Amino acid sequence: MSELMRNLTILLPTRNEVEGLGMVIDQIPSEKLHELGWNSHLIIVDGYSTDGTVTLAKERGITVYGQSGGIGKGLGLRQAFTHYLESGNDALIMLDPDGTYNPLDIPHLLSKMDEGDYDVVIGSRLRGRIDDGAMSKINYLGNHILTWSAVALYRTFVSDLCTGFWAFKKEAVAEMKLNSISFEIEAEMYAACCHNKMKFGEVPIRYHNRKGKAKLSSLQDGLRIFRKLFVRRFFKKPVN
Known about the structure:
By secondary structure, the chain is an alpha/beta fold. It has a single domain (6-233), classed as Spore Coat Polysaccharide Biosynthesis Protein SpsA, Chain A (Alpha-Beta Complex). The chain has nine helices and seven strands; from the N terminus they run E-H-H-E-H-E-H-E-H-E-H-E-H-H-E-H.
């Protein structure tokens, strides 16, 4: 264990995730992270859940920030990033709490970030293993098309643009300027990091079947993501 402990925020964005949240909380590898020199602090930003998500989180002693201003993952994450920066913690991990991502992969992302001195590390589903039925054929194809489009537009390699599993150094979060409302947020994070010349790393991860109802609309959200990629290619700062 490192003599100098660092502080890590683990962020779970929720909206009606009561079916997967408890399992994800139980899988947070706090002891392993402590061995690696990280004090971990779990927080939730909740986007108007009505299924008991907030009650469950509070019963487990987790800090919950209520999203304000409307529904949308992008809006919630932007507010959560502000809370994170106010905390002064050294790094941020974000992952969806629907059971698709395994928290046991968190140490792998952090170790990659340290070993390669990366500013940002993603957990790549498309280079890892996807469980049967976890991603539909149309979503699999769409993820590849959007990822190829991102690389072609920005000339910065990424193998899985739309992953919901990211690790950031504090400075990377502080420099991102974002205005996304919905599921285009990951594409805009990638675009912002490219404009700021952040050093990217990635690790392959396991991707599981989700618990609960999916919220992403393949065609509509895919078009929003591509539009965000295209617009931010030519504008280094968000255009409202």
